[in-house]
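User: Fold this; tokens only.

Assistant: Input:
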Amino acid sequence: MLAIAGGKGGCGKTTTALGLAAALARDGGRPLVVDADCDMPNLHTMAGTDRSPGVDAVAEGDSIAAVTHRSTVVPGVDVLPAGDASGSLDRTALRRLGRARGRVILDCPAGGSDGAAAPLRHADSALVVSTGAPASLGDAAKTARMAETLGARVAGSVLTRTDDPPSAVSGSGGSGRAPEPVLATVPEIDGDVLDDRVGRASYDRLATALGRRNI
């Protein structure tokens, strides 16, 4: 179970979750993307599904398969939206998702709230998303430290809206630098990143980089 985390809202977490899932689907899998941001959910909107049923139904005992939606926007990707859940993602739902077969990608809330911490406590690994802006990078470093404290191995980071290759933005994981290693960068793209050839290639590279790290 991989948590897609970041310190700033709007840095591209949901797009990264769906873009990575699409890349994994192109490689033959069928990943499940879960909206863990129950107070500001938008995964269902970007994935082209209904908001309900969702993770609240899983917490109440429904099977994951029964409430999973198929994305109408991202081929080969299943989606578990927020439904009527609010606050932190329910621990029962997280435990059940942790036992699910196949890849589970958690689209996490931004910041350091309890809502952001809950999925990190249950995830096997975390991928930190940031733009290249200094404030976003500083918050990304804080998110990486929080993930490690909560027991989620930090797989690395992905930088969005930058044309620099990963080698050009790599550095120490301190404030103002991307958490290491920088696995991929996604350039600024006009229009739908997930429907763009360059955007798809960026997320394919991210999936390959994670695979090399056994994630």
